[in-house]
Amino acid sequence: xxxxxxxxxxxxxxxxxxxxxxxxxxxxxxxxxxxxxxxxxxxxxxxxxxxxxxxxxxxxxxxxxxxxxxxxxxxxxxxxxxxxxxxxxxxxxxxxxxxxxxxxxxxxxxxxxxxxxxxxxxxxxxxxxxxxxxxxxxxxxxxxxxxxxxxxxxxxxxxxxxxxxxxxxxxxxxxxxxxxxxxxxxxxxxxxxxxxxxxxxxxxxxxxxxxxxxxxxxxxxxxxx
Length: 225
Prior knowledge:
Layout: H1 2-27, E1 33-34, H2 71-77, E2 82-92, E3 110-121, E4 130-139, H3 142-152, E5 156-157, E6 167-170, E7 178-182, E8 185-192, E9 196-197, H4 205-211, H5 213-221
Parallel strand pairs: 1-9
Antiparallel strand pairs: 2-3, 3-4, 4-8, 5-6, 6-7, 7-8
């Protein structure tokens, strides 16, 4: 009888210890969570001339997209990021109908560094699974940009002006990619991750949309203030 009681107490102790470990795992995931910082409110001004009277900037004269969201910006927005790698990519100018009226615009125009891509590793990721990017879509007279944006940028409005942009749209409600305009610039930012952000239960796409995408927008528009 005594041995049976000792066995019961031992089993009870094991169950209590197991429950304690499980509870700790459930309520203490902080070591695997990712924090989100703030993009700098000011940056080196983008090298874009004053554009008016329907003028556009040929794509091969666009600024380097990596100067609009820099490695320093990424490190400020995602301070837990490691192994940050950057790559510039060429993009073709948008075939916007109104731009065709300008003799300087040609369908073959390409920007050699119109897109900047970042890959990195965040807490909880075993490899560099997080991506962020910025793409320049057009650079032109702000009136022409605004007109095209209102007619040609499909999607759901984000909070107008709250992230430094004149306006942004998302293709759908939980989209992690935003197309925005700021003065003479039409641009798109986006990204994805498998990491979990502080205070969130999982890596749901709206976490990136609500926390990271606005900071990417702010990083770009800081160069156009």
